[in-house]
């Protein structure tokens, strides 16, 4: 009796897949899977296709390393953006959060992580080399360090500051309006706008 039917196995597998997603516990995973089981074929198929085409079409911009389906991305190609400012963030979600405030009109650079000795992430594991090449080959007036305000984010900002300041450009850090431990993507628009406007030179 303990042998599960193929159908039950398929359900269990999907529940396991959903449980691995951030913010989805086993309970929610189960709810989603039973919902999909009852939903029409069309909806399940559309979800599966959306996931597949996201993986196939989305790549990283060769200039700023944000996620994009065109290269360079729309922000890097946009002539209306201030090309003398680069805002450095940890993740693509942070670009979304800052863009949502509308407070910033410059360009971005996405590191894809933060320096974390405890997790074995060093400077060479994130897009710092690419950033330096960019700073050396373009006329940049200001670099805004918008890494998270947790330990890893602060360490990364400090490291970048030491690296960038000899290049002679202004280096700023978002103001302290963001409480320590905040991940940028979860900050509300008001706080993020205020800390952006109050950014200070390091
Ligand atoms: Zn780009």
Task: Note down, in words, how this protein is organized.
The chain is an alpha/beta fold. The protein is 45% helix and 13% strand. It has eight helices and seven strands; from the N terminus they run H-H-H-E-E-H-E-H-E-H-E-H-E-H-E. It has helices at 6-19, 26-38, 41-57, 74-77, 92-101, 128-137, 151-164, 189-197; strands at 59-60, 67-68, 82-89, 106-110, 142-145, 170-173, 200-201. Strands 4-3-5-6-7 form a five-stranded mixed beta sheet. The protein has a two-stranded antiparallel ribbon with strand order 1-2. Helix 7 links the parallel strand 5 (142-145) and strand 6 (170-173). The model has no long low-confidence stretch (mean pLDDT 90). Residues 61, 63-64, 66, 72-73, 75-76 line the site of zinc ion.
Give the overall average pLDDT.
90
**Uncertain parts:** none
User: In this structure, how is the largest beta sheet organized?
Assistant: 5 strands, mixed
| SS element count, helices | 8
Summary of the model, kept short:
By secondary structure, the protein is an alpha/beta fold. The protein contains eight helices and seven strands, in the order H-H-H-E-E-H-E-H-E-H-E-H-E-H-E. Helix 1 (6-19) crosses helix 2 (26-38).
Secondary structure elements and their pairing?
Layout: H1 6-19, H2 26-38, H3 41-57, E1 59-60, E2 67-68, H4 74-77, E3 82-89, H5 92-101, E4 106-110, H6 128-137, E5 142-145, H7 151-164, E6 170-173, H8 189-197, E7 200-201
Parallel strand pairs: 3-4, 3-5, 5-6
Antiparallel strand pairs: 1-2, 6-7
Helix pairs in contact: 1-2, 5-8
The structure holds zinc ion (ZN).
Residues 61, 63-64, 66, 72-73, 75-76 line the site of zinc ion (ZN).
């Amino acid at each position: 009796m303990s042998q599960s039917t193929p159908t039950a196995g398929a359900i269990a597998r999907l529940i396991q897949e959903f449980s691995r997603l951030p913010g989805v516990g086993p309970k929610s995973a189960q709810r989603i899977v039973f919902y999909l089981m009852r939903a029409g074929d069309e909806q399940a198929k559309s979800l599966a296709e959306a996931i597949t085409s996201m993986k196939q079409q989305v790549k990283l911009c060769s200039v700023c390393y944000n996620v994009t389906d065109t290269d360079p991305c729309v922000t890097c190609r946009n002539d209306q953006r201030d090309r003398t400012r680069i805002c450095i963030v940890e993740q693509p979600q942070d670009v979304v959060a800052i863009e949502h405030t509308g407070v910033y009109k410059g360009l971005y650079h996405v590191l894809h992580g933060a320096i974390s000795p405890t997790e074995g992430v060093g400077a060479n594991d994130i897009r710092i080399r690419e950033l330096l090449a960019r700073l050396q080959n373009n006329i940049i007036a200001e670099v805004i360090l918008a890494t998270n305000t947790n330990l890893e984010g602060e360490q990364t900002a400090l490291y970048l500051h030491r690296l960038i300041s000899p290049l002679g450009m202004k280096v700023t850090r978002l103001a302290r309006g963001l409480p320590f431990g905040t991940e940028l993507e979860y900050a509300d628009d008001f706080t993020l706008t205020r800390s952006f406007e109050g950014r200070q030179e390091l």
